[in-house]
Amino acid sequence: MNIIWLGHGSFRIEIEDQVVLIDPWLTGNPMLAEDQHAAAVAGATHILVTHGHFDHITDVVQISKDTGAPVSGMYELAQHLTAQGAVEGMAFNMGGTIGIGDKVSVSMVPASHSSSADMDGARPYMGNESGFVIKGDGRCLYHSGDTGIMADMDWIGDFYKPDIGILSAGGHFTMGMREAAYAAKRYFNFKTVIPCHYLTFPLLEQSAEVLAQGLPGVDVVEPQVMQAIVL
């Protein structure tokens, strides 16, 4: 499995025979140079969306059209993106599990955030915000989506037993590094933790040092944009 950070909350996950993009944000993403955009989405086979905010879905429809990758996510959000021209994937909901290819499964789990999309001066509701549990290559990955600490992490950790955690940890809009460390230690038994949704703007946390200090014995990897984390 290759986990490639595209900056902010965006990831490229190369797993089994699939290339899965999660919340791919290109336009206006200060972490991802324009000359990296094509490589970031090349060969995408599927797109997952966690919620409707601009820094998560701005480019999804165009990427889907360009690559042919179907878009899956929360029922209302997935239907909205399909109506905008994205290739139709699977509109599902909390507790549901879908297959991507023959070997990868994706389960939708709760997050604690908000979800709306900017449309013609309004911000319509886009269904509940979510996270994902992705299984493949003999690994189990939990992508928290944008979230604060929540009690649901207890059953997510106990039921799915993910060994890899991608955790929003920039603070202000999501958990900060201290909160992410607390959640990882209390609710999960991760071997590897990768922070995200940080560094992008001055408002967000700029270092994962506090996260690493709070998780002794866990491999806390500070991702580098477009550099594969091989697990």
Strand and helix map with partners:
Layout: E1 2-5, E2 11-15, E3 18-22, H1 37-41, E4 46-49, H2 54-57, H3 60-67, E5 71-74, H4 75-83, E6 88-92, E7 97-100, E8 104-110, E9 130-136, E10 139-143, H5 152-160, E11 164-168, H6 177-187, E12 192-196, H7 209-213, E13 219-220, E14 228-230
Parallel strand pairs: 3-4, 4-5, 5-6, 10-11, 11-12, 12-13
Antiparallel strand pairs: 1-2, 1-14, 2-3, 7-8, 8-9, 9-10
Name a few traits of the molecule.
Metallo-beta-lactamase, Chain A, globular, seven-stranded mixed beta sheet, single chain, 7 helices, 231 residues, alpha/beta
Provide structural commentary:
The protein is of the alpha/beta class and 231 residues long. It has one domain (2-230): Ribonuclease Z/Hydroxyacylglutathione hydrolase-like (Metallo-beta-lactamase, Chain A, 4-Layer Sandwich). The protein has 7 helices and 14 strands. It has helices spanning 37-41, 54-57, 60-67, 75-83, 152-160, 177-187, 209-213, and strands at 2-5, 11-15, 18-22, 46-49, 71-74, 88-92, 97-100, 104-110, 130-136, 139-143, 164-168, 192-196, 219-220, 228-230. The strands form 2 sheets. The chain has a 7-stranded mixed sheet with strand order 6-5-4-3-2-1-14. It has a 7-stranded mixed sheet with strand order 7-8-9-10-11-12-13, with helices on one face. A hairpin with a 5-residue loop joins β1 and β2 (11-15). The model has no long low-confidence stretch (mean pLDDT 96).
